Amino acid sequence: MTKAEVANEIARTTGLDRQTVMTVIEEFMNVVKDSLIHGENVYLRGFGSFIIKTRAEKLARNISKNTAVIIPQHNIPAFKPANSFKDEVAKGE
Description:
Layout: H1 3-14, H2 18-37, E1 42-44, E2 48-55, E3 58-62, E4 67-71, E5 74-81, H3 83-91
Antiparallel strand pairs: 1-2, 2-5, 3-4
Helix pairs in contact: 1-2
C-alpha cells in the first residue's frame, strides 16, 4: 500500500478531504524523522515504536580489491511493533 492509498483510505473512512489527510501524514512522518535525528524514540502505544539502533564498528572485506575496510559505528532507524500489533497480524485480522 502506498502513501497515496493510505491517504485515500483514511479520507474515505473519516470523511476528511484527501489533501488534509496527506498533510497530516506528511507532518507525522516529519515529526518521527526529526525525533529520531535528535535521538528521541517515538512510542505509539498499541502500534509500535520507532527507535534508533546503534550498529557497532565492524571489519568488512572488499573482495575485488582483497582489502579490509572498517565500517564505523553508526545509528540506524528501526521499527519495533507492539505485541498486540504482532498478534493481530499473526491472526490475520
